[in-house]
Every structure is written in C-alpha cells, then in structure tokens.
C-alpha cells in the first residue's frame, strides 16, 4: 500500500518508515524541508513538501505524527499557539488532500491513524486511566483535544479514523531517554518532585507495531492509548533506570525548582496518568516490551 506520513522524519517516524518499507509498502513523507530530512530517511521514501503534492499518487493510508515538541520551550502564550498550530495545521493538510481527491473522483485512503498524546487526560493522580476516562481540563488536554478534533472530519468522508494517545517513547538515540540518560550515567539522576506521578511509557518498536496493527485491522476505530500495559511512577522509573545503568539515583529535583525553571510546562514532569492500553489489548495487540525493566534492558 501507499502510506503517507506526516512527521516521518521524527524519532518515531524514521523507524516507522523503515518497517513499512521492509514489509513492501510504498512510503510517502511530508516535510517542509525535503532536502534537509533526506539523509535521515531510507532512499526509497518519496519526500514532498506538502500533502497536496501527492495528488498524482494518492495514498491508501494516512499516518499523522507531525507536531512541534511539547517540551522544547517554556509555555508562553505564543508557544502554546505554536504547539497547537503545528498539530492542527498538519492534520488539516490531510483533510484538505482528501477533500481534493474526493472532488476529483479519486479514491480516498481507507484509514487515517492520527497521533495524540497521554496529555489528553491531564493530571489523573493515581486513578487507573483507560480510553473512557474523563480528562482533566488543562493545557495539555486542550492541545490534544484540538489535535484530535482536527482529524474528525475525515470520518464524514468514509475514512476510518484511529487516534493514538501516545505515552513517553523509549529507545536509544532520542525520545525521553535522550535528556535523561546523561545525568543518570553520571550518578546524578533522581526523581521529580514526590515521584508519585505516573509516567505512561512505550518502547518505540511497540509503538511502531501498534501503528501498523491499527493500519491493518480494518474494524478498529476511535481512540487508543499508545502505552505499555505496565506504567510506572516517576520514582519507579528512576529506580529502574538507575539499576540498569548500575548507578545511584539520589539527587531528587524538588517540585519548586521545576516550577521555577519551567513554569506551567513543569506539569509534564510533576503530574501524570496511570494510562493503560485497554483497547489495544482487547483488540489482540501483543507488546514485545510490556514491562519497563525489559524495555530498558533491550535499550541499554
């Protein structure tokens, strides 16, 4: 199948492109700067600067992963708008592509898998969270809700829509561990605040497998939690990571320090949700790395 990906040059997208090509699919990637991302992607990828540029070779599957890093900068009003726009605009590009294909009498994609994040639920304390849990209204939730809403119009065109609310992605060379590993390797790691906040996580290979599972299972639609079945608290994550590195983790970062340094964005570090992938498990998806110790052992 022809699979069009937004965010294909990112940490998850790169591995997804590799796996799709290995299974014989054609991969189309949207990037505003095709010449800059060419070296990060397999040569077989067809990279163009907009979704509309693929009108001549209409995709059969849409995978929407684009969006500026939520933790790149402090959340000023302008940065919040940038975070929202980066997600909504890329999603709207795909909707517009489908509208144009429909207007031309061309075949529409069969499915769109659209990214979202664990932030959809906001701070849930120690409550077990599945796809039916009501969100806590805060910026992370509003960001994800607008992102998800931007994808909904595609359903009216008869395209199956699966939304994947993604946890912290773990693998070497990027993602969550990229910033955490240096201090932990020096024995300077520690919990954030009380350490009681939950950290839903997923190994990158399991996330890519989940995306392809949703792509291939034609009966699955709606929201799915993209995280491992055994989330951990920040304290447990800290302890497990330090153990894998054979280092102590005795330098906790007080909540007031994080709030002073990051402002409202500190919520990402100090709050969380005990998010479980109930619908993926119910659908028969199997995780290669269900527990954190197994995932970190494979990575490190």
TrEMBL record:
<dbReference type="InterPro" id="IPR010099">
    <property type="entry name" value="SDR39U1"/>
</dbReference>
<protein>
    <submittedName>
        <fullName>TIGR01777 family oxidoreductase</fullName>
    </submittedName>
</protein>
<dbReference type="InterPro" id="IPR001509">
    <property type="entry name" value="Epimerase_deHydtase"/>
</dbReference>
<feature type="domain" description="DUF1731">
    <location>
        <begin position="253"/>
        <end position="299"/>
    </location>
</feature>
<dbReference type="InterPro" id="IPR013549">
    <property type="entry name" value="DUF1731"/>
</dbReference>
<dbReference type="Pfam" id="PF08338">
    <property type="entry name" value="DUF1731"/>
</dbReference>
<dbReference type="Pfam" id="PF01370">
    <property type="entry name" value="Epimerase"/>
</dbReference>
<dbReference type="InterPro" id="IPR036291">
    <property type="entry name" value="NAD(P)-bd_dom_sf"/>
</dbReference>
<comment type="similarity">
    <text>Belongs to the NAD(P)-dependent epimerase/dehydratase family. SDR39U1 subfamily.</text>
</comment>
<feature type="domain" description="NAD-dependent epimerase/dehydratase">
    <location>
        <begin position="3"/>
        <end position="217"/>
    </location>
</feature>
């Amino acid at each position: 199948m022809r699979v069009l990906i937004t965010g294909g040059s990112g940490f998850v997208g790169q591995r997804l492109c590799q796996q799709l090509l290995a299974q014989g699919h054609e991969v189309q990637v949207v990037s505003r700067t095709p010449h800059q991302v060419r070296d990060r992607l397999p040569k077989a990828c067809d990279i163009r600067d907009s979704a509309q540029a693929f009108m001549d070779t209409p995709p059969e599957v849409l995978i929407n992963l684009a969006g500026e890093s939520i933790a790149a900068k402090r959340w000023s009003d302008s940065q919040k708008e940038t975070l929202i726009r980066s997600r909504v605009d890329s999603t709207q590009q795909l909707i517009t592509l489908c509208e144009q294909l429909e207007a031309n009498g061309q075949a529409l994609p069969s499915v769109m898998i659209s990214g979202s994040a664990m932030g959809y639920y906001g701070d849930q304390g120690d409550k077990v969270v599945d796809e039916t849990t009501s969100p806590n209204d805060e910026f992370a939730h509003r960001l994800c809700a607008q992102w998800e809403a931007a994808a909904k119009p595609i359903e009216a065109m008869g395209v199956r829509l699966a939304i994947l609310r993604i946890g912290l992605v773990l693998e070497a060379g990027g993602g969550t561990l990229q910033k955490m590993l240096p201090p932990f390797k020096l024995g300077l790691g520690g919990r954030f605040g009380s350490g009681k906040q939950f950290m839903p996580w997923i190994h990158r290979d399991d996330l890519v497998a989940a995306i392809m599972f949703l792509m291939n299972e034609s009966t699955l639609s709606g929201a799915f939690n993209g995280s491992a079945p055994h989330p951990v608290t920040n304290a447990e994550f800290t302890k497990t990571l330090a153990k894998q590195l054979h280092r102590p983790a005795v330098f906790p970062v007080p909540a007031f320090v994080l709030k002073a340094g990051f402002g409202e964005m500190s919520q990402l570090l100090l709050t969380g949700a005990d998010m479980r992938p109930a619908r993926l498990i119910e659908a028969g998806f199997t995780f290669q790395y269900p527990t954190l110790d197994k995932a970190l052992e494979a990575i490190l």
